[in-house]
Amino acid sequence: MQNPLKLALALVALLFTACPVSADTIVKRLAPGVMLTQEIDQATPLVISVVSVDLSAPGVRLGVGIGQDRISGTDATHGREDVSRLARRHDALVAINADFFPYTGDPLGVGVRDGELFSEPFTGIRGGGPRVTLGVSPDGRRILFDTLSFLGDLQTPRGERIAINGINRPVGKNEVVVFSRLYGPLTENKPGGVEVVVSGVNLPVRANKLLTGHVQSVRVVESATEAIPDDGVVLSAGPGVGADFLARTLHSGDPVSFVLGIAPAGQMTGAYQIAALPRTGHDLPSRSGLGISRTAWEWAQVPSAVGGGPRLLVNGQVSVDWAAEGFDPGFASSLNPRTAVGTTRDGTHLLLVTVDGRQTISRGVTLTDMAGILKRYGAWNAINLDGGGSTTMVVGGLAVSSPQGGGGERPVADMLLVYSDQAYQHGVPAVPLLKSENEEGQEGTASAHIVPPALPIFVGSAVPLRVQGGDKIVPGSSSKILWQGPVTGGIGFVNQKGYLIALTPGNGTVSALYQGHLLTAVITVLGKAPAAPVYTLQSRFAPDISGQNTKHSQLIVRIIDSAGKPKANATIAIVVTGGSTITPAQKTDFDGSATFDLNWAAEGGGAVRVLSGTLEPNELPQP
Q: Of 94, 221, 244, 441, which cross-links 418 as Cys (Cβ 3.0–4.6 Å)?
């Protein structure tokens, strides 16, 4: 058994190693094996959010979410969705944005959800590529990072073959693409293309699996696209070579087979060997087969996978080869919001990391900076995911990061999700899940509420928030409270210490989860607080009109600001040397003035010192 003192010292050392000296950090346990750390570096400035997931913890599992549960859509987002909204719909404890995506909304790289392949690997751009992929091992206890190749193959009943170029994305000229129901109800092709509806397919569509079915119909695309059947797929070819092949070789009733192979570079032969293996009841290959590599075998069975890039850490060393994965130098070196994932050296923990950027509270980081942050938090291998305005971390249904500088979330194509079967751990309150938006409010919320600040909130100020729970006041830093970072309207950001940083004037809503309840409070942020007036003491002796009373003087003191405005009700004290006064302290009147009578012991050599708080004192000699 480890020495408790040594263990405690090691944890303290790790904490100080993981965080810069100037940073303020807070740690909150979310569920067994799941912990949130937020690092607030005011000097740089940066806001870093880190979720650590113990992959061996009971009830913890990983998953992938697809925006609106389909690849495409007819709305302005093209089927994408806010991370927080999807996390609430799927009761995910934690969610972050995942892969890059074009305007069409389909992920650029690999996508696997519940074992079903919905997007092929990214093959390259600008002379670089392919890009790295994150996969979850078949047992859910390890993370795989690898660069994958793709080779699709379609075979007609007469043995004629053509390459398949992708799955669930718009079809290019001369290409052949497979559309499954995960894409949406209709395909996307251009006039002159050809679409083949295949029914009776042995779904789901899995990587490295022999898929078979029968041709239901073949038609040339004129204007409308084809409906995707529930029990099959559509083989869609763009104008050119692909369309000519499908129209010439396939007819209604024909059997057809195809494989969508993915495997690490150089292992595509293994992917096709796996496709020919018998399947179990779970529709997975039943045995590895002689000569099939372990990695190819694992990638044929991954339940979840998302694309990203580039690599950030390789075996504990910073390794950011952005050009090799098709990124430009500006993307790598500019300060931006970033999202990344990493694993510890022993592979037992997954780290989900976001860094906010493009805002006054957090400037953003370069790719190399991001690699350094992952390394500080114990990552051994790590990859970058989509960033910029997509960067979002959601916990318990609330965004704890500050997407797009408080301007609201950007809908994204896919997400990496963390689930937990255990909402609470004894003695360690966890964050309960926030239900979907259309559900009624939860019972008992009236017994707890957010306590708004008593004083006005001005732009640029940081004010503490608290929660009133029954007859107790709970500080904002409590592990029982999870704060939504962005305040609606973009007027501020709340960190996990419970401090509201006011950013712009306006009205907004602060939200928090507390003991199973969603709490909200409306706040108002005012413009910058007026500058405090600068006051000065002005002291003089009243003239002796007779010129004969040299042992008595009248001292007149006034406090005014630079604009000449008087300060009423301020305390003025005098100290007399070589004399005395009956009233050594007075309050100023409405005109900011106070008058003192002084009696001198002799006709010369006396003095008076005038004081008022922190104002510069006055020294006057006896007149």
A: 94
